[in-house]
Amino acid sequence: MSEALPAAVFNFINFATVMSPSEIDYKALLQVIGQWVSVVLGIYLLVLIILRVSGLYRIDRCPNCDGELKRAQRTTADRLLKSLSFNILSLKRYRCYMCYWEGPALQIREM
């Protein structure tokens, strides 16, 4: 015995056939999408500012061997990360000469 699906579920499944392109309010759809994009961007900027102010992303010792770190030349990926953070985070690349670890100062320190 199969039970019939409720009308709302059936309409959701067949969404493409329920509404024609002329029935969609594209202006309202773009407003909703714009609101969601602005909320996500706002949260992203807030997290970046909190990281910048707190300084939790900075490292001063090697994460592998606790050795001294020296500055290294940035790679293209490091420059891209800096651009994606809207230059809020000053991402620098470091190298340890004791264990040959190299990486950006993007590791969150434990408090």
Which terms would index this structure?
single chain; 111 residues; mainly alpha; three-stranded antiparallel β-sheet; 4 helices; 3 strands
Would you write up a description of this structure?
The protein is mainly α and 111 residues long. The protein has one domain. Helix content is 44%, strand content 9%. It has helices spanning 7-13, 15-18, 26-54, 76-84; strands at residues 69-71, 93-96, 102-104. A three-stranded antiparallel sheet has the order 1-2-3, with no helix packed on it. A hairpin with a 5-residue loop joins strand 2 (93-96) and strand 3 (102-104). The mean pLDDT is 80.
User: What sequence of helices (H) and strands (E) makes up the elements?
Assistant: HHHEHEE
Count of domain modules = 1
Derived from helix and strand composition plus strand pairing, the structural class reads mainly alpha
Biggest sheet overview: 3 strands, antiparallel
Report the end-to-end length measured between terminal Cα atoms.
60 Å
Helical segment count: 4
Return Rg in Å.
Answer: 24 Å
The percentage of residues in β strands lies in 5-15%
For the biggest β-sheet, the strand order reads 1-2-3
Shape: elongated
Average pLDDT, to the nearest integer?
80
* Poorly predicted runs: none
Helix content: 40-55%
Number of strands: 3
